Amino acid sequence: MTVSYTLRVANARFGGFSALLFRWRGSIYKLLYKELLVFLGLYGILSLTYRILLSPEQKRIYAQVARYCNRSADLIPMSFVLGFYVTQVVNRWWAQYRSIPLPDRLMCVVTATVHGDDERGRTLRRTLLRYANLSSVLVLRSVSTRVLRRFPTIEHVVEAGFMSQEEKQKFESLHSDFNKYWVPCVWFTNLAAQARREGRVRDDIAFGLLLEELNQYRGKCSLLFHYDWISFPLVYTQVVTIAVYSFFAFCIIGRQFLEDPKPPLKGQEGPLGDLDLYVPLTTLLQFFFYAGWLKVAEQIINPFGEDDDDFETNQLIDRNLQVSLLSVDDMYGDLPPMGRDRYWGEAAAQPPYTVASAADSLRPSFMGSTFNLRLVPKENGEGWGVPAGLEPGDGRGLPPAHVQPSFPAPPPLHLQYVGGAGAVRGGDGERGWGSLEVFYLRPVSGHQPAGPAHPSDAVPPPDRPGSHTGPGTYAPGPAPACAGSPHRRGGSGGPKSGRGLPGGGGRGEGRS
């Protein structure tokens, strides 16, 4: 099952990635611990042999061999070889995911082009989408061990409802030396042509659009099959594997602690040598990085296996069949009632903000890095240019006095309290979490705050709903009742009735 930790890293914070280091499932520790134990075992055996079993003359010869191996290990370009290889494997991994066939576009086209509320129309639409799903099941059986374990034979596909017995007989009677995942797509085209002759597909344009979407779907099935057929070049995989293993074979020999060949005489202090570490920490870190890098490539080079981070192909099959049949059958011609939206008659729709997100409403819209700059004539009269001492986007903040804004600055944003609802709970101390009363705010034109704008100034106290007229000042006024979702505002009447602050009725000054 795919390991997802997206919510854990939604916000950058101190030690954000550190919490991920203590996970086991899908971790580098789970992938690498066996190789690490083998490396430590070989290193320890060689270290004990050098310290205990070798004679002084043998130690001297071994020291020469160790120095040679240590120099030779540095000649292997590990970073370049591994870096390029893993980059190509990751690109291939993402391309394979994007080649998985999804019926979402096809089911929308089938719903819009194949008409009929009777049983014949329902059967046509459901059969068309079943053929599309059958094609993806057949190709996934050919590339994914999880799907093959679920559908080991065609009979299991029939029992799952993707194929009927009659279709199974036709499928098996078609003799071909190649994979026959494309056969249901041909059935799809034949059935679509029959629907066109019956008038279920009303024109050739709709029929062409239907076949175009099917061809894109079939193309993804073919691409997925060819990714499984054409593997990453074996020679490069062998080169990278040999490079990593030979590098650490040299490290096992060359990174051992070596005794001083000339011990100091009695009463004399010898030269300060290397620290005798029984466990080579830096070499272990190198092993963890390089061998871990290789294990990452080994895991994702074929994401259709049964590793922790391989694709959830069985769940994709379930989702695709359920969603596609719902779209073309239960949802065919099913529309919610249509009416005027909440912002009917308003020049500029402005959805409400909760208190937790009110600070976002105070940020001006980005209009471009040169929006507030005006070009000045050049001294030689040839064209226009940016004033000297200020380059676009140099990050110096406000422009000089002689650079005038080309448009008037927008008025300060003014917020009005328009309703409240409930309490939001949860969280781990992030901004906007905890337990708080939720209020809804909207911009109000024509009012100037009496002091500097601040998000806290725009939030009315829970027991005093009203409109904000200045920092710390609230004009009393009725707050519409909230109904339905937390962002719904109650009230009735026309788009201009009952608006504004007490005594005011200007446009955009309130809501009924």
From TrEMBL:
Provide the residue span(s) of the region labelled Disordered: 446-512
Its Gene Ontology cellular component terms are: chloride channel complex; plasma membrane
> What is the topology of this protein in the membrane according to its UniProt annotation?
Multi-pass membrane protein
Q: Where in the cell is it found?
A: Cell membrane; Membrane
- The principal localisation class reads membrane
**Which family does the similarity line name?**
Belongs to the anion channel-forming bestrophin (TC 1.A.46) family. Calcium-sensitive chloride channel subfamily.
- Its protein name is Bestrophin
Identify the taxonomic lineage of the organism of origin: Eukaryota, Metazoa, Chordata, Craniata, Vertebrata
